[in-house]
Design brief:
Layout (H helix, E strand, L loop, with lengths): L1 H5 L17 H15 L6 H5 L3 H9 L10 E5 L6 E5 L9 H7 L5 E5 L15 H15 L5 E6 L1 H15 L4 E7 L15 H15 L1 H24 L2 H7 L5 H21 L9 E6 L17 E6 L11 H17 L2
Parallel strand pairs: 2-3, 2-4, 4-5, 5-6, 6-7
Antiparallel strand pairs: 1-3
Helix pairs in contact: 6-7, 9-11
Length: 339
């Protein structure tokens, strides 16, 4: 079963689903096949709590008695406080948090919230940020009924984390930490303020000086990949082609699914009416993309603290940049503890 889903011929009972390339989309397929084969309905999040075939076999034999809400995924269990809740990224599940989890101090717990891990029929639509935030806020309070709360959102997930913080504060709870990882502030009628031509040229020149000719070759390669992904995505939208020719175990299929989710999240950003936040916001900004106008300073009424991290956008969650990101998060957590 796992071999077919992951497209790997040999898997041992100790191999980890996540380490082998498993993600929320493939976990959803696995849950469906388990239900069909064993008549055992389980939450998608349980796949990430029992990621090896050995653990999964035990899970299937047991009666499902999940004590956590279906959107909840434990990424890292720490020794004490604080408990950091991470919100999923634009078009992805929680996979991008895994390198960060390895770099965080042993005391810190990192829990994920993502509707991608829920197979509930009434889960909120990804185009509605307010409903997504309400859904996560309820699930979060099932895990931790009282504050102080520590929230972290990557990219689009930062917008949801921001709205969750608004909900919790309105309920009278303390949000001690609201961290946004290179999150663009939603603007009316746009996902973010576009760069001017002068700013784009300046950005490219700066990156070329910083990274050399590899920057150009990587940009060209990335542009080709994006173009091919768009072609696949448009083909994928055809029901007949998708059913008959899509390789659902391939990375391309997963990438196309991510693109579909990303488009929905972009629509959500356009429709979201953002309000000022009474607390402090900690922004972890990709240093190689600092020309982007993130604009959170207008909304963080108690102040905006910016930490620059080397790399572009999601690169700051990858090695070696993620080590710096973890250090900055530790600094921010320490700062908010004494303020």
């Amino acid at each position: 079963m796992l071999q077919d889903i992951l497209g790997i011929e040999e898997i041992s009972i100790q191999d980890n689903f996540i380490d082998l390339g498993g993600n929320s989309l493939l976990a959803a397929r696995l849950v469906t096949e388990i239900e069909q084969k064993y008549a055992q309905k389980i939450a998608i999040s349980r796949i990430f709590q029992a990621p090896t075939p050995k653990e999964l076999a035990v899970l299937i034999r047991q009666e499902e008695k999940a004590s956590y809400p279906p959107s909840f995924v434990p990424i890292k269990n720490g020794n004490s406080q604080p408990v950091l809740f991470g919100i999923h990224n634009l078009g992805y599940g929680l996979e991008l948090y895994l390198p960060l989890a390895k770099c965080l101090d042993s005391d810190i717990s990192l829990y994920g919230l993502s509707s991608s891990f829920s197979n509930e029929p009434n889960k909120p639509h990804s185009r509605d940020i307010a409903n997504l935030a309400s859904y996560y806020a309820r699930d979060l309070q099932k895990i931790q009924p009282q504050g102080p709360y520590y929230l972290l959102g990557v990219s689009f997930g930062g917008v949801i984390a921001y709205e969750i913080a608004q909900i919790l504060v309105a309920q009278g709870h303390e949000v001690k930490f609201l961290g946004l990882v290179d999150t663009h502030c939603p603007q009316q009628n746009s996902v973010y303020k576009p760069l001017s031509l002068k700013e784009r040229i300046s950005s490219h020149i700066r990156k070329l000086r910083l990274k050399g000719v590899n920057y150009l070759s990587n940009r060209i390669q990335r542009r080709i990949e994006v173009t091919m992904d768009l072609i696949r995505y448009n083909l994928y939208k055809n029901d007949w082609l998708r059913e008959n020719f899509a390789d659902k175990t391939s990375r391309n299929f997963a990438q196309i699914e991510h693109m579909q989710q990303a488009k929905e999240h972009q629509e959500a950003n356009k429709n979201y009416v953002i309000q000022p936040y009474p607390g402090k916001v900690y922004l972890f900004r990709a240093a190689d993309d600092i020309f982007y106008k993130l604009d959170w300073q207008k909304l963080a009424e108690s102040g905006l603290i910016i930490y620059d991290v080397p790399g572009e956008h999601l690169e700051i969650l990858q090695e070696p940049n993620v080590q710096t990101l973890a250090e900055k998060i530790h600094l921010a957590l320490g700062f908010c503890q004494v303020n």
